[in-house]
Amino acid sequence: MRRRLSDQELRQALSELSQWHTQLIDEAQSLTRSYPFENFMAALTFANRIGELAESANHHPQLNVQWGRLDIFWWSHDVGGISTSDVDLARASDALFNTL
Which helix H or strand E contains 38, and what residues bound it? Predict the structure, then answer.
């Protein structure tokens, strides 16, 4: 069963996820990052790849696709905040971005 990270665990995770920060979404804390792209289609293509990652993990983020940018918000609804699954998927998102 997932559990929400403690404040100390979250600080540790954020120290390792240099471009991520926290943001409130639906009254719960989320991990969020904006990824830059050259155009809308590149951002949309990456959003689809994140969708495949989310499906394989059965854990789905909020995605905001804009021209030249994709914003990702990972959080666990069932624990009302950020869990280890969200940290793992933030790392996986970065790894996927680094393969582009």
Answer: none
> What residue spans define the domains of the chain?
7-98
- Write the class of the CATH domain 7-98: alpha beta
Count the Cβ atoms, other than its own, within 10 Å of residue 92: 16
**How does pLDDT run across 2-51, given as a tens digit for each residue?**
899 999 999 999 999 989 999 998 889 999 999 999 999 999 999 999 99
pLDDT > 90 in the chain, percent: 92
Measured in whole angstroms, how far is the alpha carbon of residue 37 from the centre of its chain?
A: 16
Instruction: Indicate the pTM of the whole model.
Output: 0.94
The conformation of residue 67, written as its DSSP 8-state character, comes to T
- Decide: 77 and 2 in contact? Cβ < 8 Å: no
